[in-house]
Amino acid sequence: MRTDRLLARLEQEPERPSNRDVPRMSRTRKLLFGTTSALYAVIVVAVLIRADLVRLDWQVMLFRPYKQWPEVHEFLDYFVVLGQRGPTAVLVAAWLGWRSWRQRTLRPLLVLGTALLALNVTVGAVKIGLGRLGPHYATTVGSGELFAGGDIFPSGHTANAVVTWGILAYLATTPRARRVLSVVAAFFALGVGATTVYLGTHWVSDVLLGWAAGLLILLGLPWAEPVIAWAEDRIQAWRDRRRTASPGGRRLVPSPLSPVTRQSLLPSRRGLPAEEMAVQDEGQHGETAVIAGRAPASSSSGTGIGAARLYHPAGRQHPLRAERAPVSPQPPVGPRRQYSDRSLPRTAHLGPRGR
Question: Which InterPro entries does this one have (predicted)?
């Protein structure tokens, strides 16, 4: 099947709005948000005071998992891409863009954009503020490596995997799809976080804080739903104005049907008197017909072509064939030859003329 035919068929299908209500900040969601926020703060404080969590970071780093299991190193180098913001954002945005087109709503794309914006602001601010160095650049054993100009705490790959793949579950329209997508998002989030520890690019505490940061974004999205709805209304209104306005600022009026198409859509009026046909013309077309050679005065309101009134003379009813008077043949008039002479040839013989 050709692509243009497929797109034309999809365009003809009815609108499919989402049948799921917009999530709200329920009591359970607020409880989870508060618990995750407390866990976030505990992790940051533990790294600041060099608690047992920092000791665990060094133990895993010195264990060097990438040297213990080198056979999976190549595969995990590709798998960790599922946590990079660029490729995953493009992939998920393509899917949500198709959903927005099918459902005639911009909410999926706006939710994704809001979540990624919040993720960049919150995670980026903590990274720059704490400035932690990664395992490959650590200088002092047992140190938290904070305020040293780094930018790995929390793990951006892990937080991005939680948010990007979790958005699919957040926007799911059925309970079954929500459960399946939640499992998929959890698998990618846990897998990407563990892979960064295996490759030695992040500490264990970086991954834990990345999970908490991404989960906070997903749990707090219902607070942004009113803003998302307001932005969607504004964009839709702007798009409608652009569609109905010409480049010069004038509003475009839909083109009327052609006379041929309009006449084909009207019922047959054969056999109706001229006066009744004129009345139908005035009622159906909005035009004024001339009856018996008289035309009403033109309207004084309005200017231009749209305000002009068209005058059509009343149609004459043609008689039927049976009602027509018979026509008898008339004798030829003028220098034509008689009917009896038509058998004679008009041209001379081709031979030589006689003397």
Answer: PAP2/HPO, PAP2/HPO_sf
